From TrEMBL:
Membrane-spanning segments: none
InterPro entries: Acyl_CoA_acyltransferase, Gcn5-rel_NAT, GNAT_YJDJ
PROSITE patterns: GNAT_YJDJ (PS51729)
Domain N-acetyltransferase as annotated: residue spans: 2-90
Name of the molecule in the record: N-acetyltransferase
């Protein structure tokens, strides 16, 4: 099935339509979300799925015209390694 953007998260669904990974980004206010959780099923770990989910999440956040506050340790690390997305990070 693939990666799907939903309300405040992106989810990877497998061929049986089962969720196998997600990045969540609930609203803090009307202009800001919190990148607060990354999960990948153990069967997919080490295959780059977390990075694909994070990229989909930040693209969706950018598309919505919002800024993000990363609180998930993976989000903090990933955004630190991907300067091309620093424009979505809210300065604190």
């Amino acid at each position: 099935m693939g990666i799907i953007a939903e309300e405040n998260r992106v989810v990877y669904y497998d061929q049986e339509n089962q969720p196998k990974g997600e990045v969540t980004f609930p609203d803090i206010d009307q202009d800001t979300v919190e990148l607060n959780h990354t999960f990948v099923d153990s069967s997919l770990r080490g295959m780059g799925m977390a990075g694909q989910l994070m990229e989909a999440a930040v693209k969706e956040i950018r598309r919505r015209g919002k800024k993000a506050v990363p609180t998930c340790s993976y989000a903090v690390k990933w955004l630190g390694e991907h300067e091309e997305y620093k424009d979505i990070v809210k300065e604190q």
